[in-house]
Structures are given as structure tokens and as C-alpha cells.
Backbone:
């Protein structure tokens, strides 16, 4: 795990000011009031993180390239949030960001803590399904939220997360995305992101909620050819060009804080029209696995609490609080493929 170091950032900032040109070690040492040996140590640490820095005995240091890594050095200085990601934990490789966030939350990690990994070896989605998490292609993150919510309202946090990402894709990338209740974000019917909510609670209220998300950012078509549970896509595939993951993460962090504060202040009911507008299943015939029961019907909408309203074949309406959409009318039958 890595956390940001203020002096580290100051050295990096000076190199970025003259990126592509040499900066003398003497001038860096003078401006930051440190020894040239300390400057050299910081340079070595930056190189270890992936920064392409060349050195010249007389001219100093030249920052030639910045790595597209989600390291604190590239995220924390650009945060414009009041509370989200003010504690930022980054890992090169981890089993699961949600598992780590749950552990940190149990140890008292503060509200808004973000856990990010370049790669997950045991990434997971809902119902313990695995999540394909190769190094440097996606964004794998978990958010620790300590706002006490009634237990029945806790799942709404995941729906708010999905809505925040849909808005980022539209506003920042011109991509029209939709939400497959309760936790998938789709583009053109293909899965681009999945969301997972874990929580610890007392009898009536949550102690903390951990929201996990996996976003397919720069996956290529050949990376997603496996028989996943649902056809998959990535932002790069939709745009036809790779994206800067640092920008995508920052866009999401900023948008999520705004949407979550709106949710806490006004309730999910106030966001319901936007959520229904973004729905991938509204008005369509569905087949849903709810517990041990399989239910079919037409999606009428959602309750202010986030439950699905389903019109069954017998003309009766049923409210489904927890379920897994197996099939959407005219779409890929997910029950016939391997899980993702």
C-alpha cells in the first residue's frame, strides 16, 4: 500500500513544471530546503513508481513521461472533494479492494476512504462471482462510507454509485450508458462496470458500507473474449482509443461525492426519475432470480426505496427487493454462460 508524501509531491511538481526539460538538482534542493542527496532519493522513488526520469551529471533531472497509474502522486493533488478520497490507499496488486476496505473499515478507517488497486487477483462481484481484473487495464476501487443509513436504504448506495458513473460517461466521454438493476452499468447492452455493496450494521442502522466497483477502462476486444456471464465492453473499445485512467478515476470521485451528498440530503426518491431514465430494463420483459424463486414479468419501475416493481403475467404487481436479472427481453441469455 502507498500513501502520499508531501515532500515527494513537491519534488514531482517541480519536475512537472519543466517536463521535457532538465531541472538541476541544486535548484530543487534549494527551493525545497533539502540536501541534493535527499533530492536524489526522491528521484529514485519516483522512478520506482514508473516515472521516466533521465539524469545528467551537469544538467540535473528530466521528467520525460508520467505513468498512467492510479498512484497517490497522480490523484491526490488533483482532488477537489470535501471528504471523499482524502484518505487514499493504493496497491499495485491485491486480492480484492472490497476485502481490504472491509478490513480497514473494521479497524476504524474514516468516512470517504478510497482503496484502489492496479490489479486484483481475487476480484469479486455480487454473489461471489469473480471479476476479471488485469493489471493497468481497469479501475478497481472501493469506497468506505460511514453515514448511518437504515438497513433497507443501504443498497441504494450502490444505485447512486451506478448513476454517478452513468453521468461521468455521458458528461466527460459522450458515452450513453444505462443501468441494469441493481448493479451493472451497460453500454450498448454490454457490461462496462459492476458494483458491489458490503456492509456492517447494528439492528437498525449501518455502521459502515463498502461500495466496490470494477470499470473496464482500457480492455481490448481480445481481453474480453472469454465466455463471461454477460457480454462485456470497455470505455476504450467504445471510444476507439485508450483513456487516461487517472482522469476517469478523478471524474468519478468528484461526481460520486456530489451524488452521494444529494442522496443523503434528499433521499433516493429525489433521484428516482434520473435512475429510471437511465434504466436498461424499464418496460422490458425480465426473468429474475430472487432467492430460490424465478420470476418473470415486465419492469414497471422502481420504488423510492430502490426495489423493482414487476408486473407479472397474472396481472399482479410484485415488488422485488433483491434479485438477479437473468434475461432481458431480446438480449443475451446470461443463464447459459459462465459467471463473471
Residues:
Amino acid at each position: 500500500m502507498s500513501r502520499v508524501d508531501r515532500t515527494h509531491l513537491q519534488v514531482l511538481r517541480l519536475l512537472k513544471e519543466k517536463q521535457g526539460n532538465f531541472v538541476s538538482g541544486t535548484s530543487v534542493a534549494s527551493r525545497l530546503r533539502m540536501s541534493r542527496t535527499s533530492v536524489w532519493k526522491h528521484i529514485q522513488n519516483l522512478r520506482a513508481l514508473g516515472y521516466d526520469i533521465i539524469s545528467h551529471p551537469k544538467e540535473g533531472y528530466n521528467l520525460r513521461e508520467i505513468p498512467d497509474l492510479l498512484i497517490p502522486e497522480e490523484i491526490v493533488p488533483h482532488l477537489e472533494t470535501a471528504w471523499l478520497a482524502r484518505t487514499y490507499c493504493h496497491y499495485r496488486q491485491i486480492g480484492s479492494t472490497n476485502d481490504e476496505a472491509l478490513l480497514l473499515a473494521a479497524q476504524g478507517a474514516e468516512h470517504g476512504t478510497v482503496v484502489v488497486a492496479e490489479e486484483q487477483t481475487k476480484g469479486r462481484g455480487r454473489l461471489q462471482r469473480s471479476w476479471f481484473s488485469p493489471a493497468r487495464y481497469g479501475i478497481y476501487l472501493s469506497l468506505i462510507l460511514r453515514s448511518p443509513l437504515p438497513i433497507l436504504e443501504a443498497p441504494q448506495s450502490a444505485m447512486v454509485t451506478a448513476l454517478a458513473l452513468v453521468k461521468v460517461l455521458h458528461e466527460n466521454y459522450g458515452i450513453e450508458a444505462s443501468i441494469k438493476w441493481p448493479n451493472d452499468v451497460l453500454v450498448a447492452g454490454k457490461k462496462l462496470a459492476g458494483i458491489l455493496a458490503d456492509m456492517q450494521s447494528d439492528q437498525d442502522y449501518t455502521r459502515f458500507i463498502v461500495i466496490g466497483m470494477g470499470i473496464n477502462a482500457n480492455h481490448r476486444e481480445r481481453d474480453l473474449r472469454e465466455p463471461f456471464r454477460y457480454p462485456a465492453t470497455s470505455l476504450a473499445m467504445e471510444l476507439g482509443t485508450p483513456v487516461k485512467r487517472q482522469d476517469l478515476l478523478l471524474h468519478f470521485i468528484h461526481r460520486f461525492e456530489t451524488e452521494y451528498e444529494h442522496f443523503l440530503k434528499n433521499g433516493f426518491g429525489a433521484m428516482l426519475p434520473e435512475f429510471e431514465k437511465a434504466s436498461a430494463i424499464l418496460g422490458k420483459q425480465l426473468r429474475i432470480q430472487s432467492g430460490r424463486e424465478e420470476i418473470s414479468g415486465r419492469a414497471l419501475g422502481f420504488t423510492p426505496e430502490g426495489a423493482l416493481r414487476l408486473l407479472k403475467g397474472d396481472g399482479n404487481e410484485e415488488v422485488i427487493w433483491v434479485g438477479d436479472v437473468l434475461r432481458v427481453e431480446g438480449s443475451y441469455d446470461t443463464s447459459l454462460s459462465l459467471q463473471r
User: Anything to note?
Assistant: The first helix runs from residue 6 to 17. The domain at 285-336 is CATH 2.30.30.100 (SH3 type barrels.). Confidence is low (pLDDT under 50) at residues 332-340.
